Input
Amino acid sequence: MSSAIEKLTRLVAAEDRFDHPHEDLRETQLEALNERFQERRDRIKLLGHRAREAGTAEIRRREDMVPLLFPHSVYKSYPERFLIEEKWDLLGKWLGAVSPYPIGPVETSDVTGIDDWIARLQAAGHYVSCSSGTTGKSAMLLASDKDMEWSRRDTVNVFAWGSGVQPARDRRMMGLAPTAAVPKNLVIGQAQQEAFGDPAKERFRLPVPPITVGSLTKMVVLRKKIAEGTALPEELADFEQTSRERQETLDKAVIAGAEALIKYRDEKLYISGLWNALYQVAKTVREMGYAAKDFHPDNCIYIGGGLKRAQLPPDYQEFVHQTFNIPASRNFQNYSMQELNSGMPKCQRGDRYHVPPWLVPFILDEEGGTLLRHEADEIEGRAAFYDLSLDGRWGGIITGDKISLDFGPCACGRKGPSVRNNIVRYADIQGDDKIGCAGTVDAYVRGLS
Amino acid sequence: MNAVNTDLKPADAVVSAPFFLRGELVEGQDAVHRSRDLGVTFATPRIALDRVVHPRTEVPPLLNVPLAEIIDFLVETGERIRNPGNLFVAECIDRMSATHVLPRAVLEAQVKSAAAYLDKRLLQTVVEQNFPDPRALDEWVPKRDFTGRKSFVRAFAPRLIHVLPGNSPGVAVKSIAQGAMVKAVNLFKMSSSDPFTTVAVLRTMAEIDPGHAIVKSMSAVYWRGGDDAVERALYRPQYFDKIVAWGGGDAISNVVKYLGPGFQLVSFDPKTSISMVGREAAASDEALDLAASLAATDVMVLNQEACVASRFIFVEADRRDADRFCERLHARIVEKAAATGDTRPLDMDLREQIDMLMLLDDDFRVWGKTDGKGLVIRSDEPVDFHPINKTANVIPVDSLDDAAKYVNVATQTVGFYPHQRMPDYRDRLASGGAQRIVRLGEAGPSTIGNPHDAMYPLHRFVHWMAHEDGIGPR
Output
């Protein structure tokens, strides 16, 4: 690996990694971006295409990078019929256009489904993680062994930094999230377990069947069939039935989760999950007559992801924290996304997410095409990042988030860049006021439960 | 899309968008909204909710104004809209070009051509096509069935909310005319990408006669679609009979939750239009040129902002011939785009999807770039995304029979080349959900008074009232 990238990624576990001011990082980051670009421009087809279109031969200024950042939607850009008609070779070809490493040849003649195909890619060193798009397409994100290795380290560092919990292998791990069984989530779960879990205590998992990519894409396929008019009513009734059964399983699992928490309430716990599931479990625990006073005073909590459109009361975070007796100092929050391979933990004092040196932040205009001039300390706009730790795909991503990035020091004293705790998704703030007569059949597809 | 801008910066220019309330112009800067298309903000007065509803205890003001007088008034309005000295319209175009995705010249042409709808014969024809007996608009029409039972029927003046679209200013003029001809009390909810045209037309009308019942029957206001504070108050059968709404998705689901007995939806659904090019096109270079040119005309209706604009073109040809068609189609689209001066770049997401397809050569081929100057994509099956902003997707098929399966409930217009093949397909297309079949190149024009969105809208607007008169003496 080349020097500037190495200089920055070497800081992965450095105590003072959030203490480098932007001015000190700027030159090295620029150099690292160019290194990465030079190394990848001929290897990632889409990047090469972008560079040619923009006439970019070198990254000399941050602006040069903007046309080379990929919108997050790029990882959803595969034609849906590849998936629906199980055209694995074509899907592989599509993946190949965003991969720095040649894909395949993977034997696809006897692939039984997407889960099988993904397993075969994984055996060849290509890790595909899918986002859980509930209605639309899921993103397919490629990663390498190196990325998995990085995730393993970074997730532990981020959690330890943000929660103040030392990886002392002294906790019972309580997994309360029905999360997608994709490589990245699995690696993170495993790394957290190894760092914080007491090897003598069995990890609790919510008793629900794993959510595989195949089960996620089933929904996508059905939706497409409804739109095309080829889905028949019996098929929809069956699907609704399956959904109801799944919900029942989940409801039972919530009770099992609450019972397990109560059973282990005297032990020091490491609770992990998504807000919605954790809220439901917390509510059940309270209904069973238990509260903060019954739990260990040094519990900690790891939350993956945001609300995912769940409708919860405004005080859901406090409610969860209070139920499980999580001390205020252990309030862990992390800003990251599937598209990145590194986290930005929130500091307790400044209430800000700290950006590590190997993650280069960009603030773009709302459309995502122009870099905003960073004149004041803090500016607001569309977030984009270049994650220099990424190996198995291009690290430059334009997000769907509106953030405020501060190059000034944080109230906690650290001098590195930070993101204010007021992140919103553009999709959530944009109204639906623009009506036209032109539209797609999507408007005719009523949601499934 | 748009949102209320909560942290408005003082440097932003604020365009004023006044309301029109039953004959009166209302100005004010009580609320600031944002038109996200161009990042422009506009300010509106507060909505005086009580003033936009008409009490049920009073008959609608237009009820006993003869239809002929209403049509004359509309015709006069049309003349004034076309008059270059009309300051309301000039000012409206100034303001609109700041908030609209379409270029100024296109908008000007649209407002002028919208006024062409306000033609005496045209309006009369529209009424005649919508009502078996248009007299029902003016009077209680006597009826007698075969048993001898007598009655009177009236197409009674309704109370309507029109949720206007923002992609076609012409719809504003049309909606005003239609609302007037059915003698409705009308509330127009304007769109954030055009909060001006409706008011400009209504002001033009008020100038003719500020006290006329037609003017007293019209209000035009803006609120952000889905704003509960307004919609929960207004969307009630006690105030309105029907809501006439354009669009789909969130726009309609917001409306749907207020529907119930006495408060009905007349929906103009979001639509996609397509083209079918038969193997006859590949028979000669001349035919191919012609078909490509006609297809480009249909793709470029309102620079592809309209629902009648074609987006998917099925070509009965092998890849090689389809590619020859694509090349020609691309050249024609580029010419037309250049002529309108419209070079809006494609949205980031769309650009990305197309760029990726470009890299999957063999299976996809792309003519042009994602720069907003015109683009054609050839693929074996329709692309997943909605081609927009001068983008056409050409799909080679062995037979147009294979293309018929892509017609669905969202399909509006299907253009055919050669037109002789239309009768073979129209039943299947209607069964699939399509609403209109046209000769290729003629997606824009339609026979005056023809059904729209599979209905005769005016017939749906009115409150059909029966006066039973018993069995009279022979």
